[in-house]
Q: What sequence folds into this?
């Protein structure tokens, strides 16, 4: 019997090393929005730049990207930096670049920056070359994403704007979509929603008013800076972390590193350590085909079964040791019934005390990204999506990428690799539609 | 530590590999136009990896898009690379008439790169150019044809690449 326990050192990649700093890109356009575009992509995260790259190579250049931030993958990177995450769980073969056009792919990009990598990171590349699991340093991913954005003209086509609503004008071959933003309205033939996921919030029953000592994982701590891009409250305090996923593991580890005691509260009977949060089967065409053959009810069941919180293997020795030596107390198999100032009440009647309570309850995609009306999204967990175009059946010019496309692409939809699969289908749809419109 | 009887074909490459060698392995897989463009972009640069990324940018910038005319930088780089290659080739015939033989491509590149260390400027201006020339020499059949086309018929430099 062989037990695979990857070493915690794989989690430690340097962040913001000068040799891998992204090239400075032009800031997104701050001026007035254009009145029209063939395609509007909402969001310039990993999904948005994957779509932009695929459209670029398809010759679709009448493109506008919209994002409240001013650089590619800003929210994505800010989020992982907020919890001190240094490597991605997605392996090297999952990246937002374009395949089939000789563009530099993520693994080659990393190898071309060999001198900037640590021994551990180089070892991960060799693992990836051998077809084994790999983790990608955040520095490498950020520099690569910036490169992908740059070569496909993302900064020149991106406007800093917040989208309030997308309004399809109705079904028909000449129909368009109005995109309402805080900077004005523009009209597009196609809109691609690349909005990512929102953090899951606590049930309203947990409190009447959120106590000051309670924060969500992506909110800043209210304390003195301590370096490493993070902060810490008093070093001898106690942090209570609610949630069983990778984010919780990062918050726990950060607190332990700062000398704090921690309490870990989870609904699961036992924490789960896994390489990836999605079964690898779903990344392969046969896995997607299995999903596609399933009924709507089966898809929901499959997704719920495969999407439960898990922690990267590498955390296991750290967290097991902390529990064994008493620095961490784990409360398993319990629900939270209430959260008060300095106290989390559990379903078994106990309370867990701490001067800081961090809620790591996961993320979720809103059908229609929260900017498309329910009447267009349709019923069900994901709405009613056409599997060929990833467009909403009731709004055939509005496409979904990311977890919102999970009803078609399965659990892998929310992964970076799922974005590329989605982008390919959307590009085909945009080109086919252009051929119809222009004869 | 690799045992003497280990079949080296199945041994993972060293993590201590020279960055130039790691980049060289990527360059060996590129089409000859991109090798010539890289050769034409090297100048006295030290890092062939950075040059490969520069070529990736030039390649994309050579396509016109609304609001951004195509640049000729890629075609210019290929033409410059073809000239550099023709200049280097004559010296290579003398300095390294036979490629160092090895069953491993990585080892062939490393030996070729090392052997080129004796070819001083102006034939080789920097480490990046040395890496590109080593790769071009290993791929000389394809690169010769491409360089010939680039010189006698500039229209072939219009891409797509």
A:
């Amino acid at each position: 019997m062989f037990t695979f326990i990857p070493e915690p050192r794989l989690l430690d990649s340097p962040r913001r090393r000068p040799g891998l700093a992204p090239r400075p890109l032009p800031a997104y356009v701050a001026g007035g929005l254009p009145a029209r575009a063939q395609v509007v992509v909402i969001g310039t995260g990993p999904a948005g730049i994957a779509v932009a790259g695929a459209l670029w190579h398809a010759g679709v250049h009448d493109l506008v990207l919209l994002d409240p931030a001013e650089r590619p993958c800003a929210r994505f990177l800010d989020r992982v930096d907020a919890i001190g995450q240094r490597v991605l769980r997605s392996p090297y073969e999952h990246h937002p670049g374009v395949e089939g056009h000789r563009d530099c792919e993520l693994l080659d990009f990393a190898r071309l920056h060999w001198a900037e990598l640590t021994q551990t990171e180089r070892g991960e590349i060799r693992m990836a070359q051998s077809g084994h699991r790999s983790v990608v340093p955040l520095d490498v991913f950020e520099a690569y994403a910036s490169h992908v954005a740059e070569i496909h003209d993302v900064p020149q086509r991106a406007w800093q704007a917040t989208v309030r609503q997308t309004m399809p004008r109705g079904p028909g071959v000449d129909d368009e979509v109005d995109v309402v933003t805080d900077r004005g309205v523009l009209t597009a033939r196609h809109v691609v929603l690349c909005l990512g996921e929102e953090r899951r919030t606590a049930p309203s029953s947990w409190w009447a008013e959120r106590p000051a000592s309670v924060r969500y994982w992506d909110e800043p701590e209210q304390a003195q800076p301590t370096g490493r891009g993070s902060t810490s409250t008093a070093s001898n305090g106690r942090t209570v972390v609610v949630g069983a996923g990778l984010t919780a593991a990062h918050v726990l580890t950060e607190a332990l590193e700062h000398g704090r005691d921690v309490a870990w509260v989870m609904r699961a009977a036992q924490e789960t350590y896994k390489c990836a949060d999605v079964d690898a089967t779903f990344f392969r065409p046969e896995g997607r085909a299995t999903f596609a053959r399933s009924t709507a009810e089966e898809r929901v069941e499959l997704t719920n079964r495969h999407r439960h919180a898990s922690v990267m293997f590498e955390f296991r020795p750290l967290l097991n040791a902390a529990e064994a030596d008493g620095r961490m107390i784990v409360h398993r198999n319990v629900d939270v019934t209430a959260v008060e100032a300095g106290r989390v009440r559990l379903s078994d009647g106990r309370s867990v005390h701490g001067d800081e309570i961090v809620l790591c309850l996961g993320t979720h995609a809103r059908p229609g990204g929260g900017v498309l009306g329910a009447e267009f999204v349709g019923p069900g967990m994901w709405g009613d999506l056409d599997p060929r175009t990833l467009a909403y059946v009731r709004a055939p010019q509005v496409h979904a990428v990311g977890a919102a496309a999970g009803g078609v692409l399965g659990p892998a939809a929310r992964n970076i690799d799922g974005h590329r699969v989605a982008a390919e289908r959307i590009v085909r749809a945009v080109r086919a539609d252009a051929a119809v419109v222009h004869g | 530590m690799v045992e003497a009887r280990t079949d080296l074909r199945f041994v993972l490459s060293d993590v201590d590999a020279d960055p130039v060698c790691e980049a060289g392995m990527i360059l060996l897989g590129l089409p000859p136009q991109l090798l010539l463009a890289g050769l034409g972009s090297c100048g006295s640069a030290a890092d062939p990896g950075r040059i490969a990324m520069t070529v990736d940018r030039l390649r994309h910038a050579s396509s016109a898009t609304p609001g951004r005319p195509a640049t000729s930088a890629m075609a210019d780089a290929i033409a410059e690379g073809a000239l550099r290659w023709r200049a280097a080739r004559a010296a290579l015939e003398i300095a390294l008439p036979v490629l160092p033989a090895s069953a491993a491509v990585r080892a062939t590149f490393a030996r070729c790169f090392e052997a080129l260390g004796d070819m001083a400027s102006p034939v080789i201006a920097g480490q990046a150019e040395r890496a590109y020339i080593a790769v071009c020499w290993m791929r000389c059949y394809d690169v010769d044809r491409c360089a010939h086309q680039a010189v006698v018929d500039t229209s072939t430099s219009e891409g797509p690449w």
Remarks:
- Chain B has one domain: 18-61+71-152.
- The mean pLDDT of chain B is 84.
